[in-house]
Structure formats: C-alpha cells, structure tokens
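In the design runs reported in the main text, the only information available to the sequence generator was the tokenized backbone. The following block is the verbatim input for one such run; it is reproduced so that readers can re-run the procedure and compare outputs position by position.
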C-alpha cells in the first residue's frame, strides 16, 4: 500500500496529463478550412442571381417595353404596368422569366463569381488598390459572363417584348429563331452585350468595392455589416444606371429586331441611327425603370452573395 502522501500526487498527475493532452491535440491537428472552389463561388453567385431575378423580373419587362416602343415610353412606368396588366394579364409581367433564370445561372453567376479570382489576378485585391484595377477586374468577369449568357439574353428580350395574353414559349421562340437565323441569331447583339457587360460589371463591382471602403471609413461599420453592404450596393446601382443606359438601349434594340429582318448592322450602326433619328437623350429613355431595376437587383444580389460567402467561411468582398 503506497504511503498516504503519494496517492494525491498520482491521482492529480493523471488528470493533469490527460487535460494537457486534450489541449495539445487540437493545436497539433487544427487546420484552416480550405477556401471554397471556383465552382462553389460561381454556384453561390448563380443562386443569389436566380433568387433576385424572380422578384425583379416585372421591372425588367416594363423597362424593355419602354425601350422598344415610344408608345410605352410616353405612358411611363405606371402607365406601362397598367396597360400590360389590363391587356395581357398580371402574369404577363413575368414573361420570359424562365429564360431570365437560365440567363442569370450562366451570365451573372460568372460575372459575379469570377470577380474575386480575376481581382486577385489583376492585383486589385491588395490594400489601397486603385479603382481602375477593380473596374478592369469587374469588366473582365462581365465579358466572360456575357459570352455564356447571350443566347438566353436574346430569348429573354424577345419573350418580354411579345404582346398578347398568351405566355410565350421559350422552346417555340428558340426554334423560330434557329429556323430563321441559325446559331448566329442567338448571338445577335453580342458586341453591344459584351460592351454593356464590361461597363455594367466594372461599374457595379468597382463602385461597390470602393464604396465599401468609404462606408467603413465614415461609419466605422465592418465590411461584413449589412448596413455597409446595403449602402454600397445602392451607390453602385445608381452609378451603373448612369453608365449602362446607352449600352442597354443599343443591346435591347439589336436583340429585339424582327426574326426575318435586320434593322441594324452592328452596335455602332444602331447607336448612330438612334442618335441621329431619335436624338441623344433616347439613350437614357427608361432611366427610371432601369434604376428601379438596378437598385434592388444590385442590392439583393450582392447582399445574398455576401451572406452565402459568410456561410461558406469566406471573407467579405
């Protein structure tokens, strides 16, 4: 039998060694979680975009009608909504939403999901990186996304512009376009669409990124704060409207040409004819519906995307 004074020593020693071992193991085996793959980032961006467009699509329908028709342009947003709902039914405001889902799943998933990887490639991820690098990173991601999403963009535009109370079929629209114009019909307006995507995404991501720095500096909120994200996204949406409206007008006109006719040779020809025949201010026709679409779209897309990044253990943009 061991002496009485040795027993406490042994009994205290064993728990102590066990406790120290339990503390030591996590330190030895703990590892930082691997960052989400590029595919995961693109998937998160696509999820945010599809959710957003489901709610914002009616504004896009109104904007498109105003851009392609002076009649709707005179009615304004309220009058256009009333005319569409009265003559075609309320569901007409969601015409082409299935094509819009496919467009967002291809185009927006790439231009939003690729921004951070391209930003790193361009050296725009460094502290104090100038705005132009962020703009160029956003532009490059936008151009890549535009190449993937153009076919669905063409279908969406034609379906939104179709009149009548019968919902247009995406498959019928695609077959008609293919029969009359071939594969090239799905890439109608690709030049203006790429330019638009570059200006849009460059402005959107560059301004959002830059605005977050200003909001953090003036308010003291963190980058991951919802307030910071909301204020930055609203600012980005306004500047997007100012820079993108002319490109959006040209793109809409090119994509909505009749299937059996060609009114414009290319983006430059279209812009020249609009400016000379209808006046330069025509490029900003539908400014309010465009802003009404961009503001909530940008805000919802970026906030949902940022929250998904947080869930996946990624830092804020």
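Verbatim output:
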């Amino acid at each position: 039998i061991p002496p009485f004074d040795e027993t406490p020593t042994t009994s205290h020693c064993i728990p102590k060694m066990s406790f120290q071992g339990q503390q030591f193991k996590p330190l030895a085996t703990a590892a930082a979680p691997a960052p989400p793959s590029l595919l995961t980032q693109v998937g998160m961006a696509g999820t945010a975009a599809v959710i957003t467009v489901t709610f914002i699509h009616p504004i896009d329908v109104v904007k498109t009608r105003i851009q392609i028709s002076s009649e709707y342009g005179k009615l304004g947003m309220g009058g256009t909504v009333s005319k569409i709902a009265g003559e075609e039914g309320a569901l007409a405001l969601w015409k082409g939403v299935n094509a819009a889902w496919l467009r967002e799943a291809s185009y927006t998933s790439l231009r939003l999901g690729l921004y951070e990887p391209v930003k790193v490639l361009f050296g725009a991820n460094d502290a104090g990186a100038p705005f132009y690098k962020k703009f160029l990173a956003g532009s490059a991601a936008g151009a890549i996304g535009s190449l993937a999403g153009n076919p669905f963009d063409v279908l969406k535009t034609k379906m939104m512009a179709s009149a009548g109370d019968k919902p247009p079929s995406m498959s019928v629209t695609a077959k008609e376009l293919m029969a009359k114009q071939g594969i090239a019909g799905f890439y109608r307006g690709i030049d203006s669409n790429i330019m638009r995507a570059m200006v849009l995404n460059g402005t959107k991501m560059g301004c959002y990124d830059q605005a977050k720095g200003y909001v953090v500096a003036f308010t003291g909120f963190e980058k991951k704060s919802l307030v910071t994200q909301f204020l930055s996204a609203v600012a980005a949406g306004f500047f997007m409207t100012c820079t993108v409206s002319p490109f959006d007008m040209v793109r809409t006109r090119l994509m909505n040409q009749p299937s059996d006719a060609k009114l414009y040779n290319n983006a430059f020809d279209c812009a020249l004819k609009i400016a000379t025949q209808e006046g330069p201010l025509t490029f900003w026709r539908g400014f309010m519906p465009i802003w009404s679409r961009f503001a909530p779209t940008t805000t919802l897309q970026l906030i949902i995307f940022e929250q998904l990044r947080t869930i996946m253990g990624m830092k804020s943009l």
